[in-house]
Design a protein that fits this description.
mainly beta, 6 strands
């Protein structure tokens, strides 16, 4: 039990597909994510890429994403363009 809790604290929050229906966030796919630099891009359904920073990923500890993962997120506009926020991995 303790090992499981510790592992969960170090990984991004996972969301079950059944829970997604009540969520107003977009669904996209991780195009790439550089673990060393802490950022990458998510591809939206329309093919547009959205910047994602590790701080926008729900979870604790070392927050990262893997290429090809499906994610849910909000899109915000800032001075540099579109950015993902409140990102969770869909299982």
């Amino acid at each position: 039990m303790i090992a499981t809790l510790a592992l969960n604290a170090l990984t991004p929050q996972l969301v079950n597909l059944a829970e997604v229906e009540d969520d107003d966030r977009e669904i996209g796919e991780v195009k790439w994510f550089n673990v060393n630099k802490g950022y990458g891009f998510i591809t939206r359904d329309d093919g547009e890429d959205v910047f994602v920073h590790f701080r926008a990923i729900r979870g604790r500890g070392h927050r990262t994403l893997a290429e090809g993962q499906k994610v849910r997120y909000h899109v915000i506009q800032n001075e540099r363009g579109l950015q993902a926020d409140d990102v969770t991995v869909i299982t």
